[in-house]
Amino acid sequence: MDDKELFWLAGLLEGEGLFQKGAPCEPKYPQIKINMTDYDVITHVTNLFDVTYIQTSIPKYDHWKPNYGTLVKGKRAVRLMCQLYPLMGERRRQQIETAIGDKPAVLTEYAPTDENWFYWLAGLLEGEGSFQIQVKGEGRSDQPKLNLKMTDKDVVEHFALLLNTHVLGPYKLSGGPESANWKPAYDASVFGEIALEWMQRLRPYMGERRQAQIGTVIAGYHPKPRTYHYGESHHQAKLTADSVRTIKQRIRQGVKLTALAREYGVDTGLIWQIKAGRIWQQVPWPEDAEA
Of 51, 122, 132, 288, which has the highest C-beta tally within 10 A? Predict the structure, then answer.
């Protein structure tokens, strides 16, 4: 598999996978397992595992969904664990070390490109993400919300870094037992038009269920029209016409909005508004200036 597929698989297994030692009757055959209710996603995983077997669990109750699972074991599993190891969080790395009995040798160094981590994000959110409309109180507009909640703080921190947001928690999981084995949960979210933009970018790379969820959010979001009058002379302006001209040029070159926001000391939403043409319309895009 190529780097994009490996990063996607790493994200998915971070949330839904299991790395195990071999069964007592097969101690030399470590395993990677995954179970989900999404048949299309499991089918894709079997292709990446290079296996054909999919286990189906019939639901106990009519309102439950069937559960599907697949696994890879033995040498292929060990090799894949070694490939995945640098991309996994702390808890999954410990599982891999336990499964193979040692810290695995890193087989490949991966380029930490924005594109590769985007595929990791798609895989992670396929398993653990939440795509919804956050219902606000009276007089306030509902808005899209993209959320991740997990007990792995380091994974949530990485998610928050990619989306330029912050981590909240620790929280007690609802219904979780108060015992020595209880783990706190952490979450991170983006809201509004930023969340909507991420959902639209992610949608083509998600499974059928997640695509439907995102479609529901998009169809149900009706923002109130707003008029912006920001410009260099506005009392709240943080940018100049020259800086906006440079920002537009770099957006055309593929620079991430979050990176531009950090560089210019502004919110990512402001850069998104420039890209969407909601503010600074008076500064032409590079191709418009050349026309």
Answer: 122
d(CA 188, CA 149): 7
Q: What is the distance between the alpha carbons of residues 283 and 230, in angstroms, rounded to a whole number?
A: 12
Mean pLDDT for the chain overall: 84
**CA-to-CA dists, residue 138 to 135, 145, 217, 221, angstroms:** 9, 18, 20, 16
- Pairwise CA distance, residues 270 & 238, whole Å: 10
**Cβ pair 91, 156 in contact under 8 A:** no
Q: Which amino acid is at 230?
A: Y
Estimate to the nearest angstrom the gap between the alpha carbon of 52 and the chain centroid: 27
pLDDT at 68: 93
Query: CA angle, corner 16, sides to 69 and 116, nearest 5?
Result: 115
Q: What is the DSSP letter of 118?
A: H
3-state helix, strand, coil in the chain (%, to 5): 45, 15, 35
Sheet holding 67-73, edge to edge: 17-20, 31-36, 67-73, 55-57
pLDDT in tens, 41-53: 999 999 999 998 8
Choice between 67 and 135, residue whose per-residue pLDDT is larger: 67
Count other Cβ atoms within 10 Å, centred on residue 185: 18
